[in-house]
UniProtKB/TrEMBL annotation:
UniProt-listed Pfam families: Cob_adeno_trans
SUPFAM superfamilies named in the record: Cobalamin adenosyltransferase-like
Name of the protein: Corrinoid adenosyltransferase
InterPro entries on file: CblAdoTrfase-like (IPR016030), CblAdoTrfase-like_sf (IPR036451), PduO-typ (IPR029499)
Reaction(s) catalysed (UniProt annotation): 2 cob(II)alamin + reduced [electron-transfer flavoprotein] + 2 ATP = 2 adenosylcob(III)alamin + 2 triphosphate + oxidized [electron-transfer flavoprotein] + 3 H(+); 2 cob(II)yrinate a,c diamide + reduced [electron-transfer flavoprotein] + 2 ATP = 2 adenosylcob(III)yrinate a,c-diamide + 2 triphosphate + oxidized [electron-transfer flavoprotein] + 3 H(+)
Sequence ranges assigned to domain Cobalamin adenosyltransferase-like in this UniProt record: 8-168
Length: 188
């Protein structure tokens, strides 16, 4: 890593601006900076999930996703990046889709909507899924027509993967998913 992070406390953000990897400075309220923060939060929630003692191969799959998310944040911090310098490429989406299919093929068909829960790990996977959707929306709000079009697609695929992961984790040790009960009696 060299000396890229030789000084953490810089005080350069105390006036409400922050720096991009390009050296440009933006308001901390800029949609690009907000999106970078959302990606960081998503990665943090994913880290919590990974540390919950998941069965193999989930930790390996999700650690790869964490690295991808760091790349997403990196791309966001480098506006104007040439397409051939993109950090997120088709291979990342293909990997997510293959992981989704591998997990989803082990699950029974859905017959009802699924509520977050089942196990602590399944509930955390649903948190990751929900935050992932927010990150996807944040990416669409970044006013950059040159932004890598794979970034929001990656987040879309990741939320699908996290839904399958949550469903799988709810079944660990004989557990089950929490299903929405649409026919419950309504209270007046």
């Amino acid at each position: 890593m060299g000396k890229r992070l030789s000084k953490i406390v810089t005080r350069t953000g105390d006036a409400g601006e922050t720096g991009l990897a390009t050296g440009a400075r933006l308001a901390k309220t800029d949609p690009r900076i907000a999106a970078i923060g959302e990606v960081d939060e998503l990665n943090s929630h994913l880290g919590v999930l990974i540390e919950m003692g998941l069965p193999s191969p989930l930790p390996e799959i999700l650690r790869e996703v964490q690295n991808d998310l760091f790349d997403v944040g990196g791309e966001l911090s480098m506006p104007g990046l040439a397409p051939d310098q993109a950090l997120i490429r088709d291979v990342a989406l293909e990997r997510l889709e293959a992981d989704f299919e591998r997990i989803n093929d082990t699950l029974p068909p859905l017959t009802e909507f699924v509520l977050p829960g089942g196990t602590p790990a399944a509930a955390q996977a649903h948190v990751v899924r929900a935050v992932c959707r927010r990150v996807e929306r944040a990416l669409w709000s970044v006013p950059d027509p040159a932004m890598n079009p794979l970034l929001p697609r990656y987040l879309n695929r990741l939320s699908d993967l996290m839904f399958a992961v949550a469903r799988q984790l709810a079944r660990i040790d004989g557990g089950s998913e929490v299903m929405w009960r649409h026919s419950r009696k309504k209270k007046n």
